[in-house]
């Protein structure tokens, strides 16, 4: 059977027309999701949704998570929350704890963090470290 079937790379019709094996072309065609996500989360721009400027909560939560990562492998939510509250700007009428847990949910949905274990729900673990992060 192997004498009859050929690899698709050896077909004359497809020769030099496939993107397999060339990382430069593949990078141009397939977007690098992780680097785009990292760039977006690490931004320090402010946006205006009210008369006062407020920081993007997701960026603040991500940066405070990376700060806590230097100290803990499994980051306690209380430590992460304290770091978030310290760096986030105050918004009148909005509880910072609610804003924090909204960010935790979004980061978990994106696959950046996950629970430390099935039984330990009071700590998180970083599932996606940024490429520029060094210990």
How would you sum up this structure, described in words?
The chain is an alpha+beta fold. The model is unreliable at 50-54 (pLDDT under 50). Helices cover 41% and strands 11% of the residues. It has helices at residues 23-29, 33-41, 57-69, 77-87, 96-110, and strands at 46-48, 53-55, 75-76, 113-115, 123-126. Strand 1 (46-48) and strand 2 (53-55) form a beta hairpin. The protein has 5 helices and 5 strands, in the order ααββαβααββ. It has a domain at 33-126: Arc Repressor Mutant, subunit A (Orthogonal Bundle), CATH 1.10.10. It has a 3-stranded antiparallel beta sheet. Strands 1-2 form a two-stranded antiparallel ribbon. It comes from Gongylonema pulchrum. This is FBD domain-containing protein.
């Amino acid at each position: 059977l192997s004498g009859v079937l050929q690899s698709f790379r050896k077909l004359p019709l497809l020769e030099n027309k496939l993107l397999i094996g060339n990382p430069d072309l593949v990078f141009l065609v397939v977007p690098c999701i992780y680097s785009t996500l990292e760039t977006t989360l690490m931004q320090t721009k402010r946006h205006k949704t009210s008369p006062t400027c407020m920081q993007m909560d997701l960026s603040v939560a991500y940066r405070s998570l990376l700060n806590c990562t230097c100290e803990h492998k499994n980051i306690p939510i209380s430590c992460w929350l304290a770091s978030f509250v310290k760096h986030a700007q105050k918004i009148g009428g909005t509880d910072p704890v609610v804003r924090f847990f909204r960010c935790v949910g979004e980061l978990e949905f994106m696959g950046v963090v996950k629970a430390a274990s099935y039984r330990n729900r009071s700590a998180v673990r970083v599932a996606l470290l940024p490429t520029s992060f060094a210990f």
